[in-house]
Amino acid sequence: MTQTNPDADDIAGLAARFFDAIERGDVEAVGACYADDVAVWHNTDGLATGKAENLKVLSGLVRGFPERRYEDRRLGVFPGGFVQQHVLRAVRRDGARRELAACVICQVAGGRITRLDEYFDSAHVALFTA
Fold it and tell me: Looking only at Cα atoms, what is the longest distance across the chain?
């Protein structure tokens, strides 16, 4: 398939590195995917947080869910970013299995994520963390 966006392969590669790093629990590699001034927003609270706070939350997810997989990844690349729909399937420390469907839209500049907007059903988040 020929792509009309010359940066599409680079953006798709960034998306893969980002989600693969979360799966591995490599918070440092996730941080390397972010611009220093990244804004991370979730529809459930409407607030944007910065890089340090997001990586702290991610570290908690890694500790609480030692097994994580992004399955059913559906990636779309557009000039300046990407959108990915997926199902996060994870296993908590106590062995409980959880899953959360989500959609993530990212703006990209200079090879890094400058803004991440994540959408998911708040009722499913409550079940995921219960």
Answer: 47
How far is the C-alpha of 39 from the C-alpha of 29, rounded, in Å?
A: 17
Model confidence, pTM? 0.91
2 lies in a domain? no
Residue 3 burial (C-beta neighbours within 10 Å; 0-12, 13-18, 19+): exposed
Local confidence band at 128 (pLDDT 50, 70, 90 cut-offs): confident
Q: Is 62 helix (H, G, I), strand (E, B) or coil?
A: helix
Give the pLDDT confidence of 15-38 residue by residue, as tens digits: 999 999 999 999 999 999 999 999
Average pLDDT, the chain: 93
25 in Cβ contact with 102 (< 8 Å): no
Count: domains in the chain: 1
Domain that holds residue 75: 8-129
